[in-house]
Design a protein that fits this description.
The protein is of the alpha+beta class and about 160 residues long. The chain has four helices and seven strands; from the N terminus they run βααβββαβαββ. Strands 1-2-3-4-5-7-6 form a seven-stranded mixed β-sheet, with helices on both faces. The longest helix is centred in the middle third of the chain and has 15 residues, at about 85-100.
């Protein structure tokens, strides 16, 4: 029996309850905040699905005020769905969004110690720029308290001209 294919599309309001249920704490409103930014424009919040089951999400931020524009970010695949192609499909979908908007490259930031993500990005033709950037992150503890921190991430770039 073959598993249903992975599909990727922009997040809708109907997706939010299932995405919120997978967040680290009920106080986290991560999906809702991404969805609200998408509604404001220039921000694409994608969800990967197998059937109706969410596998993960990612964002393309096209804010021209950002130094890295457009930027692929917040790529997250649920642990049980990893190594099945969801991250690859999310990335390709958002690259297609960027290309349709006329962008010729996409950027991303990644922790230089992330031994799982870097080979995948390289396999998708992202290359390190040699630059680094401080990236803000937010975590939630078991009681729902939010903590923010910054991390020095490596910057990667992919040309959309040769695909």
């Amino acid at each position: 029996m073959t598993a249903e294919p992975i599909t990727v599309r922009l997040c809708t309001a109907e997706d939010l309850p299932a995405l919120h249920a997978r967040e680290p704490h009920p106080a986290a409103t991560i999906a809702q905040r991404h969805f609200d930014r998408q509604a404001a424009g220039g921000y694409f919040f994608a969800v990967a699905l197998r059937g109706t089951e969410p596998l993960g999400t990612s964002v393309l931020d096209c804010d021209p005020k950002n130094r890295l524009c457009p930027e692929l970010k917040n790529l997250w695949v649920y642990p049980e769905a990893r190594r099945q192609g969801a991250a690859r499909e999310l990335t390709r979908f958002l690259e297609d969004q960027a290309a349709a908007l006329g962008f010729v490259e996409v950027f991303l930031r990644v922790n230089p110690d992330n031994e799982a993500a870097i080979p995948m990005y390289i396999s998708l033709d992202y290359t390190p720029t040699g630059d680094h950037s401080m990236t803000p992150y937010e975590t939630f503890d078991a009681s729902g308290v939010s903590t923010t921190y910054e991390q020095l991430d490596a910057v990667y770039r992919k040309s959309l001209l040769i695909r």
